[in-house]
Structure formats: C-alpha cells, structure tokens
Amino acid sequence: MNILVLNAGSSSLKYQLIEMPSQVVQCVGLVERIGMEDAIFTHEKDNEKHSEVTPILNHEIGLKKITKTLLDPKIGVINSVDEIKAIGHRVVHGGSKFSHTVVVTKEVKDKIRDLFDLAPLHNPANLTGIEIAETIFTSAKQIAIFDTAFHQTMPKEAYQYAIPSTYLDDYNIRAYGFHGTSHKYVSEKAIETLNKDTSKIITIHLGNGCSMAAVKNGKCIETSMGFSPTNGLVMGTRAGDIDQSVIFFLMKKLNKSADEVNDLLQKESGMKGLTGFSDLREIEEKAGNGNEDCKNALKLAAYRIKKFIGAYAAALNGLDAIAFTAGIGENSSLMRHLSCCNLEFLGIELNNSKNEIRSKDIREIQSLNSKVKVLVIPTNEELEIAKQTCELLN
C-alpha cells in the first residue's frame, strides 16, 4: 500500500511517499518558509530534484502544492489521490494520553488540541496538517504517530518530578521525552545487530535537538528530555540541563521577563550561546583552527553525553551497546570520539579508523577489546512512521 508520511511544522511540511511493506521510498519533499511569498518547495524522485521558490501562505496551500506534484505526469508518482491508502502524521506531544499509534478520530483530534499547552510550537501545526489532509485525501486513513509514545514505558520513578503530587495528578507535569520515533527505530536496529534475546542499549540522537534514551529489552526506561524538549543534553540553541535557580536569578537580578528567559534558554543558548554558532560543522572547523570557545563547547557537550552514558548504564544495570544517530551522531566522528573517550571502565572503546569511516549503512566502530558495541545507525523516522501506520492497519 502507498503511505504518505507527513510532518507538519510551524512553518514547514515534510513528506515522503513510501510503498509498504516493501519499504520503497517513491519520493520525498519539503515545503519551507510557509507563510512567506518566497517559500521554498523541493521534491525529489529517483534522485532527481525539483526546486522552486513560490508563495505558500498557509499549510493548506502547501499541502495542495504537494498533492499537485504527486499527481504531476512528469515528476509525480500517482495517478489519483485514492492510490494513497493511509497518511501517517507525526505528532510531537501525546502527553500521557497516547502510548501507541492511533487512527485519527474526532476524539483523538480533541485530545491533541488539549495538549497544545504542552507543545505550543508543534501540536497546533501537527493538527492543522491532519485536518487539511482529511479534506484532500478523503479515502485515506489518517494515522497519528506520537514522538512521546515510545517513552510511555518509563517507570513512575523515572518520569515523576519531586514536586507535590497534585501537579502530576491535576496538571500532568512529568517527564515525557521526545524523539521517540527515532529512538524506537534505532533501538530496534541495534537489537537486530546484537541478535540476542535480552538487550541493554543507550540510543544517542544528536542533531540540532539532542536526546538520549535507555532501552531495556526494547522498552524505554529513561530518557534525557523531560516535560519539554529543552532539558538534558547541550543542543544547537537549547541549554539542556540547568539549575532552575538560574531562571529566577535572570528574572530578578537582571529584570528579564519569563518570555525573555524562555527565548534565552531555547533560542540563544546551547552551542550557539557558547560559541556564537549553532552549526556543529562550523564549530568543529573553528575549533580545529584554534578557537578556544569552540573547543570548550565541544568538550562541554561531550561531557554531558558521557554523564548520561554513565547514569543510563547504572539504570540498565549493564550495557550491551550504544548507538549514535541523527545528523551529528551519524556524521561527526569527533563528537563520537569525545563522547566515548575514557570510558574503558564501562567496556566502551572505539576503533579510531572505523570511527572515521563515513557511510549510510549501519556500522560498528568499537575496538576488538570493547565489551560494548558502539554503533552508528542512520535514523529513518519517516520509515518508522510508515511501519507503524502499516502495522496498525494490518
């Protein structure tokens, strides 16, 4: 069956059309800068890319543009919208309401709307994508896949905060975790590589947003992001873990508003705050040329990863493998090296030559002496969404 995977952001629409269960990707595309006169539309089929700059003032126009392209006699891949049997929608926050993939109903949409406060930048756009798709692909099943669902297996001692219990009971304030689709996909690939009945794995998703998860026998038991995607590791523009007293200090001592502090911690911190740059490739290049701020930022980010590796090895009571994924995790040999060095006591030791190899395939980069497998696994969130959609319908 043809499954269209849609990821609706606040100003973007990503899509892939995937034939399942063969897992053949028929086309991929992206609408960027939605709401602008100079929006950018790209569509790729059979390694041939079509790009154009065009006004796309809202998500409805964007999805209609995608649909028209899918039907185009030259660069399209279908003859009728009825050929698409299901649409898998990425929804960032499912709260504690959704632990599995679901068919979209009015009740599901109402619950996604109820969670707007927990993900104000993402859930409204995700719901908009669903509602527009319903009007265009009228015969297709609409399926919602939640970023938080994979982490719903965490035990209460992992997700509850040490504040009065009424805040959990009445307001659902707890750790949820994110990047769940990626962590699920990567952990399953790691389990296949281990080829054993039981497994203790740490997945390390490093991109502009960064998170880690401890996965025991295929179930998440701990993750670094919490109530929102802002805590845990050092990220491109997000601070990650920080003493909450710093927030009150900034508000009282420096007379900053809550919104100003929020913007500071989410948009002006992390690697950007430490170096002035948010692109890791540029930071690595400048560090190599002697920039002390950039060298320090790389060490700081890797140190945070190492702390979580140690903590998660304790939570798992052992460790079979760690798996690096996403843009930085897959492509930065330096970050992998810095994150794994001096962890021999945990049984982690890299083979430096293997670590330098660039490939789109799953690969092992540990030394012969390493007791723990160190894996690089390219993530594929769109394929995972298609798989979960297919499994639900079957």
From TrEMBL:
It catalyses: acetate + ATP = acetyl phosphate + ADP. The record marks H179, R238 as: Transition state stabilizer. Mg(2+). Can also accept Mn(2+). Mg(2+) binds at N7, E381. It is found in: Cytoplasm. GO terms for biological process: acetate metabolic process; acetyl-CoA biosynthetic process. It holds the Pfam family Acetate_kinase. The active site is at D147 (proton donor/acceptor). Substrate binds at R90. Its main location: cytoplasm. ATP binds at K14, H205, L206, G207, N208, G209, D279, L280, R281, G327, I328, G329, E330, N331. Its EC number is 2.7.2.1. Belongs to the acetokinase family. HAMAP family: Acetate_kinase (MF_00020). This is Acetate kinase. It comes from Polaribacter butkevichii. The lineage of its organism: Bacteria, Pseudomonadati, Bacteroidota, Flavobacteriia, Flavobacteriales.
